[in-house]
Amino acid sequence: MSTLTYAATDSATMLRRNLRHMRRYPSMTVMLIGMPVVFLLLFVYVFGGTLGSGLGEAAGGRSAYVNYVVPGIMLMALAATAQGTAISVAMDMTEGIIARFRTMAITRSSVLTGHVFGAVIQSMLCVAVSVAVGFLVGFRPDATAIEWLAVVGMVVLTAFALTWLTVAMGLVSKSVETASNTPMFLMLLPFFGSAFVPTDSMPTGLRWFAEYQPFTPITETLRGLLMGTSIGNSAALAIGWCIVIAGLGYLWARKLYARDPSN
Amino acid sequence: MSATYALTDSVTMLRRNLVRFRRYPAMSTMIILIPIILMLMFDFFFGGALKGAIGGDAALGGKYVNYLVPGLILMIPAYMIVSVAVSVCSDMTKGIVKRFRTMQVSPSSILFGHVIGAMIQAMLSVTALIAVALLIGFRPTAGVVEWCAAAGLFAMTVFAFVWLAAGFGLAAKTPESASNMPFPIMMLPYLGSGLVPTEGMPAGVRQFAQYQPFSPIAETLRGLLMGTAIGNNGVIAIAWCVGIGVIGYVWSTTTFRRKTTA
User: Fold this and answer.
1) Is A61 an interface residue toward B (CB < 8 Å)?
2) Which of B48, B68, B62 is nearest to B133 (CA)?
3) Helix (H, G, I), strand (E, B) or coil at B227
4) Does A65 contact B at CB distance below 8 Å?
5) Nearest to residue A20, comparing CAs of A108, A113, A114?
6) Domain limits for position B27
7) Nearest CB partner across the interface for B49, out of A45, A191, A197
8) Chain A 219-258, CB below 8 Å of chain B: which residues?
């Protein structure tokens, strides 16, 4: 059996461990699913009418605002799940299970890849629930089957990138509390982009930040695929950002995990 | 003399809570920062889109920040509920209250220490919020009397909701559940007229938003600070505060008595 096969088997075992964890302690998953849904309902029913009429062309009423906001909520679901990953990684690191794993004949990277793939599955579940609730409140995308596949691909890629980043954040945290606070900025980034309102309505300096931060091209790509709005170069930027974030997250996580645990 | 003892003990417990705020500033910092972050986010990021909603009101000078700040002030008691519930629950589960019970400490002083400590924290938080609001263009038209009335209503609101929070903290089995239990109340300021007028909401939501406790309080604060019409909101706001305060106080004291004498 090759090293690669061992790594794959061990990763599958760790993935199974993470999925079982989710099933046995569902409160975290429920929280992660609940948060984007609450924000969706809040922005559609409480702010939707006002934002819809205030955005003129971009929205024009609550029904059109639902179509505008759902891609942003999808991204929020991904950010929320990523935050959950940081917490579960920190729990593993602080509760001593990793020290046990280190003494066993397990591929070192499998512990992290188990977390990553588990989180990607959880992300997909979160996004699926958010979109389902979106449909219930009036979300009406006009995407074809190919475009839906592209949406799924974009969501998986984003989830993969954010998860590697938050795995590293979980590893760098000294406590579970710190791990729950460190990725908070990821939850805020969709607000500071085009997820909830078009960037044109923002003052100059903020508009500039909103247009160039990673979540905006991802949101615009998802919106373009689902609603047929113009994507431009957003897709290339979105994929670029995802690759960069995933690469940095992976390298950082690997470096942190390889450290001597006694240090 | 027992009233004097109770007062002295309450001051001691208040001092204990203030020392704790200083030693573990994370929660206090969050209570100060969250409303400020929300204000900056709503004004700068959503303000351009939301400005149209308040355009007609001359008292607000066409600036969304003037509409927003009185509503955002109520985020402070809403978020305060969580921190008070968690700290009361921590005290109950970590055994410190049992230690206090073996000493000659007035039982009510333990809760009063939490309540008054939270009120001081809320006052600091609202001061910070208004200071930042003034920096970004908030221009209240209130005179001295209106400012005093607004401060009084805010203190009353905090007092009421903190007693309710103490009840949540005493009812919870663990600090984790204490932090989750008040979530519906924490969401109430969003589901009212605090951030956007209720006219833009669909019928069912609008009805809920108009009749929930935070809306009349927000409208009264807005009226006092910005000179918008208050109508009967002032009376309704005070009634809600008294009602919530009484329920919270009775719930807290009876639960505390039951848990500490068992």
Assistant:
1) no
2) B68
3) coil
4) no
5) A114
6) 2-261
7) A197
8) none
| Number of Cβ within a 10 Å radius of residue B56 | 9
- Consecutive 10-residue runs of chain A (263 residues): their mean pLDDT? 64 67 69 84 84 60 84 90 81 69 64 79 88 91 90 93 90 76 80 84 83 90 89 91 93 75 52
Any idea what DSSP says for residue B49?
H
Chain B residues within 8 A of A51 when measuring between CB atoms: 46, 49-50
| Cross-chain Cβ contact A54/B52 below 8 Å | yes
In chain B, what residues touch A187 (CB-CB under 8 Å)?
Answer: none
- C-alpha–C-alpha distance, residues A14 and A1, integer Å: 19
Q: Hey, what are B104's tokens? A: 């000659």
Which of chain B's residues have a Cβ under 8 Å away from the Cβ of A48?
200
Q: Are A46 and B209 within 8 A, CB to CB? A: yes
**Site of tokens 């300096």:** A205
Q: What is the mean pLDDT of each run of 10 residues along chain B (262 residues)?
A: 62 66 68 86 80 63 83 88 83 66 63 81 89 91 92 94 90 79 84 83 86 92 90 92 94 80 63
Contact A47 B44 (CB under 8 A): no
Q: How far is the C-alpha of A248 from the C-alpha of A167, rounded, in Å?
A: 11
The two three-digit tokens of residue B171, written as one number: 């009812």
Tally of structural domains, chain B: 1
Sequence-ordered list of residues with C-beta below 8 angstroms from that of A224, at least 6 positions apart, any chain: A230, A231, A234, A235
Nearest residue of A to residue B201 by CA position?
A46
Express each pLDDT in A154-207 by its tens digit.
Answer: 999 999 999 889 889 888 887 776 787 778 778 788 888 888 888 877 888 888
